Amino acid sequence: MGVRKLRYPIQSKNGPILSPTKKNQSNAVDRSTLPKIVSLFAGAGGLDLGFKKAGYKIAVAFDISYAAIRSHKKNFPRTESVVADLIELGPIGVLQKVKENIAIGQRIAVIGGPPCQGFSRANSASYADDPRNQLPALYLEIVKELQRNYIVEFLIIENVLGIRDKKHSKIYQALVEGISDIGFNVSENEMCAVDYGVPQYRRRIVLSGMRKGQNYTIVRPQKRVGIATVREAIGTLKKPAYFRRGILPEEIPVHPNHWTMQPKSPRFQNPDDDTGNGRSFKRLKWDDASPTIAFGHREIHVHPSGIRRLSIFEAMLLQGFPREFVLVGNLTEQVEQVSNAVPPPLARSIASAVTRALSRK
Length: 361
Hints:
Shape: globular
Strand order of the largest sheet: 1-7-8-6-5-2-3-4
Order of helices and strands: EHEHEHEHEHEHEEHEEHHH
Distance between the termini: 23 Å
CATH superfamily of the largest domain: Vaccinia Virus protein VP39
Strand content: 15-25%
Radius of gyration: 20 Å
Mean pLDDT: 87
CATH class of the largest domain: Alpha Beta
Structural class: alpha/beta
């Protein structure tokens, strides 16, 4: 299939921070010349934030969730953030929206993580014919339509490891071959967030496609040292507010997202009796990274104290979001947004690797 698979040794959290060499610096691309980004399945903007921090302009972003797009607008005020079902909007509809924001003929790039629940190993009921599993193919159809009017320099697709499982192998193979067929050299990276400065064991597949015929080099994200434990991320925070009907914003301390569910389970009354660690009651450890932040409605991880669940803000920090980032919506909508997000530091490493690939011909 022409995929270049990369594997890297685990870097010690006490190791040196990787920095660009003089040669790399001399080959750096002027940020003003970087392709403008079209973001599909953007959510609240975790992947977008990583690319923005790396110098890219997020021109247009699409997501089906009204709450997620409200969050996106709040944090990316200069981006055209669009609420849309991409299946209904279709490739031509996406193209029309892009035309409204980017002049025809310009260099662009497409990034996004199609919803992964149909591929997730945590979803024991997942099956190959899940309609959501067709979204990666839709992603490529959108890219093909954009290529009619723009120079698409690269694309990025992020998804769960389960997309490579045997029952999804035909979909995955078609996706990789499809990226190549529409004019991109493909590279595959298996990445764990904890290796990129995020205190979370979140493993994902990232497919990168670089436009053929340009002698662009392989996309190879460099590992970075950063926050590595739950304690470093949330250890000094005050107690959050508990959700109740009619709660006012000024009643939520520290940060607008520092609230959580009422601790109603009897297990919260006796935190020393740690007799289980099921999916709905994963208790974090202070001096270790968090398990994957991927919550169902009542599956928010338990705070290391054992007396309550994490607040949304705490989950955001464990995802690597900066403190100034704010999610909008009710508690359930915020749970969904933080769960679906790509950790911004990991996204920034991907973006920086793409920039290096663009600059090294």
